[in-house]
Amino acid sequence: MSHSALDLACMASLVKFTSRSMKTSSPRPFGASVAHSTSGSLLLQALNGVRQEFDPSAHAEVRAIRLATKKLKTISLAGYTLYTTCEPCPMCMSAALWAGLDRVVYGATIEDANRHCNQILIPAAEVAARADMSCLIDGPLLREECYALFTHPRMLHAFRDWSSRKK
């Protein structure tokens, strides 16, 4: 699938935003943004906050959706696209469907993430296909750049400290 210049710009911006976390004591490879589907106008960006918020549901996509609906004061994100550095897990894809997003565009695949941390290995497209709601799924886009977030030396060190991964 060919991607638009708008998609490439939005994803590149998200990768840059997410990569800044690699310079902190809490690096995170999972980032998400919500942008207007037509203009590409960025509404907001968010990082995974599971460990920081002690909330297993605080995935980057869910946080971005929560923040976007609050900012717009509506539960509908129709007219918006969710960009994410990694293919959404079933929880995140379900949230995207419930929010009425037009599209989800992802970078790294769920299989890529599973090399480093636990994942529920159900593709986002399968979750969407089994729903009564519609949302286009597009990816991977800038997969190498997004997967580089997972393999950054600081992130690899952090993964070793994450207790969620069963050895």
Describe what this molecule looks like in 3D.
This protein is of the alpha/beta class and 167 residues long. The chain has helices at 5-19, 50-53, 60-72, 90-99, 110-114, 124-129, 143-151, 153-161; strands spanning 31-36, 42-47, 80-86, 103-108, 136-138. The chain has a five-stranded mixed sheet, sandwiched between helices. Helix 3 (60-72) packs parallel to helix 4 (90-99).
Question: Helix and strand layout, with pairings?
Answer:
Blueprint: H1 5-19, E1 31-36, E2 42-47, H2 50-53, H3 60-72, E3 80-86, H4 90-99, E4 103-108, H5 110-114, H6 124-129, E5 136-138, H7 143-151, H8 153-161
Parallel strand pairs: 3-4, 4-5
Antiparallel strand pairs: 1-2, 1-3
Helix pairs in contact: 3-4
Q: Percent range for helical residues?
A: 40-55%
Structural class: alpha/beta
**First and last CA, distance:** 37 Å
Proportion of residues in β-strands: 15-25%
Overall pLDDT level: 94
Placed side by side, the strands forming the largest sheet appear as 2-1-3-4-5
Radius of gyration, Cα only, in angstroms? 15 Å
Low-confidence stretches: none
